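Recap from last week: sequence in, structure out.
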Amino acid sequence: MGDTRKYAASFVLDMRGCTDTVDTVIGKLSSVITSLGGEISATENLGQKRFERKIDRSFPSGVYVQILFAGAPKIVDGIKSKLRLDKTINRVLVESVR
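Predicted structure tokens:
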């Protein structure tokens, strides 16, 4: 069966030029996690927030989303590799929680 851990994944979305809604993007993120064998317990749209330090002047704020899920440790690398080329995802942080 393997080692199952709980994780909190935080995403910063870049919705510029995107025709999808935030809820649609959250659904896509959830389907990526479940396709890798993760079991989602909660999703939360934290809303639009301004960055303290702007890396790109044309991108001063992003939509923050947090997804809580359980899965094997290998799921973290799978999430990052599947979302690597997605222009809507600006940042990904996956942390282990207890």
